[in-house]
Please model this.
Amino acid sequence: MFGLIGHSTSFEDARRKALELGYDDFAAGDLDVWCSAPPQLVEYVKVKSPTGKTIEGAYIDSCFVPEMLTRFKTARRKVLNAMELVQKKGLNITALGGFTSIIFENFNLLQHQHVRSTTLEWDRFTTGNTHTAWVICRQLENNAPSLGIDLAKARVAVVGATGDIGSAVCRWLSVRTGVAELLLVARQQQPLLELQNELGGGRILALEEALPEADVVVWVASMPRTLEIDATKLQKPCLMIDGGYPKNLDTKFSGEGVHVLKGGIVEFCNDIGWSMMELAEMEKPQRQMFACFAEAMLLEFENCHTNFSWGRNNITLEKMDFIGEASVRHGFSTLNLKPQLQVATA
Ligand code: NDP
Model:
């Protein structure tokens, strides 16, 4: 059985959902009440692959909300408690969704393997980052040509290039896609230099230098809400793949010729019959989901019960091939630009 650990996009959403599910006390509670709320197993689901195989899984709401990010101990406790619940329920492979994988990595939760009487077994969990990286690369390859962008001549800026997802995206784009030039953006210089060395290329630039040069921008960093970007200085056309979380780039760009695509989202071939993706504001919540969640399903379909995506910068092209082939085989497709936004290829 697979598992998905997630959370609401805001405190307000979490309260609304609690009311719908009949948790009236939580719905009326303030943030302090939510800070002490235990994780909830919200629903069980069955998913049938076009291969005929059916798997079962569960969605666990960690009862974390982004407003708790500044409360270090609370955030840590929320993630560990959700992982403990997953293990007690006997789920074989569970994806850490939304902020939970970031909290796990950034707060170094590997040091906290013991939660009360439970010793967490890491091979029951995956960040889902390998599938997310593969999906973002396929979204780029599928959608840039439909905007008239020739990838063999294109400059692609990767914002968050040194991150777990960003570095995998850079490897794929330089070796498999063969884009003309990668523009590498992050804040710390040393990891950028190491990445450039590993790739044998790519230009290190500050964000404001990279954006005006880029035909495609892949955002794989959680950017501050206050970030201001002058859309008039961007290339036209420009494809923006919003792979960060939360996904808020479409509110920042309104300029003609700038096309924002929600990155790291997949669509399943059938309705799943769950309610959890309504929380994540998916356009088709019965079929669409974060690629990291789909990774847990794929690993369950493939009987691959291991922490497939784990730690930082361990994503290889071979792993991306494996999960990408499984994704196609089991009925997932990547989200594309809406047809009316595309222009004829020159
Ligand atoms: P990492 O923490 O491994 O990497 C983050 C990267 O962003 C680093 O390169 C970091 O480098 C850079 N960065 C952070 N802040 C800034 C900034 N202000 N300006 C420029 N660069 C910045 O994260 P992951 O690779 O695990 O995840 C990346 C993003 O993808 C996250 O937002 C995550 O929530 C999202 N995600 C989305 C999924 C989906 O939609 N399906 C699934 C999983 C994750 P430095 O610190 O040097 O700046």
The chain has twelve helices and 16 strands. The radius of gyration is 20 Å.
